[in-house]
Amino acid sequence: MLDEFTSNLDVLWGFLVALAVVLVLTPAVGRVARVLGAVDQPGERRRVHLHAVPRLGGLAIFLGLFVPALAFLELTPAYRGILLGAALATTIGIVDDFRGLPWWMKLAGQIGAAGIAVEAGVTIDRFTFPLVGIHALPDWLAVLASLIWIVAIMNMVNFLDGLDGLAAGVCAIAGGTFAVIALSLGRPGAAVLSAIVAGACLGFLRHNFYPARIFMGDSGSLLLGFVLATVAIQGTLKTAATVALFFPLFVLAVPILDTSFVVARRLKHGQRVFAPDQAHLHHRFIRRGFSQRQTVTYLWAWCAVLAGAALATRFIPFREAGEWHLWPTVAVALVGAVAVAASLYLVILLEIVKLTRLRSWVGHRRTVEDDERRLKSA
C-alpha cells in the first residue's frame, strides 16, 4: 500500500515539475533561438503561419523531461537507455532545426536513438492478443519490431507537428493516458515518465497554442515520439494484459492514421515518402475552411475519444477469469462504436475516403430507375 502511494506521488510530482520547468524555460529558449537564427520563416511548402517563429522548443521540453526524470524515476538500465536515447533524438532534432539534415542522415540518427533503447532492454519481447494469448517473440524479431516501432512513432509525431499546439496537445493526451494505464498495470516507471511527458507538453502549450510564440521543431517532435514509443513498450506491451496490444494503437491512433494516409498517398502518386507537402489531416481541415484553433480542437477531441476507448478497454471488466460478461462487454462495445464513428466521420469529412464512385453508382441507378418508370408509364 505504501509503495503504491509513493508511486502515485511520484507520478503527480513528475507531472507538476515537468509542467513548471517547461513553463519557465520556454520563453528563454525562444529568445536564444532568435539570437542563433533558429527561426521558422513563413511561406515554406508545409508552413501555414504568417510570421517568423523561433523553433528549438524541443530543448525546453527535453529539460522538462530530464529534470523530473532524474528526481522521480527509478533509473534502471532500461530507463537510463531511454534517457540517453532521448538525448540523442533531441540532438539530431536540434541539428536539423539549425541546418537541415538529409532524410537518410536524420533516419540514421533515429535508428541510433532507438538502438540505444533496445540495447538497454526496451524491446517488444512478446505480445498479448485476445483469444490468442501471450506469445514470445524470437530475439531477432523482438529487436527488429522494437526498432521499427520506435522509429515509426518518432516520424509520425514529427509529421503531425504542423499546426500550433497540435503535436503538443496530442502528446499530452497520450502521455496522460499511458500514465493511467501503466500505473494500473503495475508499471510505475512507465507511469512516471508518461506523466512527465504530459506535464512537459501542457507547459509547452502555454507558449505554443495559436498564435504560437515558439515551435517545438524536430528537436521536440522526435523527442516526444521517441519517449512515447518507448514508454508504450515498457508500460503496456511488456504486460500480460489481455488487450495490451490495443492500448498504444488506440492512444497513438491519430499520428498513426495521419502518417498512414499521407504515406499511402505519396506512394500512390510516386512521390518521395519524406518530401514535405500539405496532405496531412490538419492541412485537409484548413482546406475545408476550418481555422487553426478549430482544426486543433477537432484533432484533440478525436485523440481524446480514442484515448477514452483505451481506458474503457482497460478498466471495464468485460472479460475476467476467461469469461465474458454481458453488460461490461456491451459498454466497451458502445465506447468502441463511438470511437469508430468519430473516426469515420472525420475520414469522410476530410474526403480521405473518396465517395465519388459511390455517388456515381447511386446516380446511375437512379437514372436507370427513372428511365424504367418512364417506359412503363408510356
Question: What order do the helices and strands come in, and which of them pair?
Answer:
Layout: H1 2-36, E1 39-40, E2 53-54, H2 57-72, H3 77-98, H4 103-119, E3 126-129, E4 133-136, H5 139-160, H6 166-184, H7 188-208, H8 217-237, H9 246-251, H10 253-268, H11 281-287, H12 292-315, E5 319-320, E6 323-324, H13 326-349, H14 356-377
Antiparallel strand pairs: 1-2, 3-4, 5-6
Helix pairs in contact: 1-2, 1-7, 2-3, 2-7, 2-8, 3-4, 3-8, 4-5, 5-8, 5-10, 6-7, 6-8, 6-12, 7-8, 12-13
Shape: globular
Q: Main beta sheet, described?
A: 2 strands, antiparallel
- How much of the sequence is in beta strands? under 5%
Poorly predicted runs of 5 or more residues: none
Give the % helix.
over 70%
Q: What is the distance, rounded to the nearest whole angstrom, between the alpha carbons of the first and last residues?
A: 85 Å
Radius of gyration: 22 Å
The SS-based structural class is mainly alpha
Order of helices and strands: HEEHHHEEHHHHHHHHEEHH
Mean pLDDT comes to: 83
- Count all strands and give the number: 6
Order of adjacent strands in the largest pleated sheet: 1-2
Query: What is the tally of helical segments?
Result: 14
Q: How would you characterize the overall build of this protein?
A:
With 378 residues, this protein is mainly alpha-helical. The chain contains 14 helices and six strands. Helix 1 (2-36) runs parallel beside helix 7 (188-208). The model has no long low-confidence stretch (mean pLDDT 83).
Task: Write a brief caption for the model.
The chain is 72% helix and 4% strand. With 378 residues, the protein is mainly α.
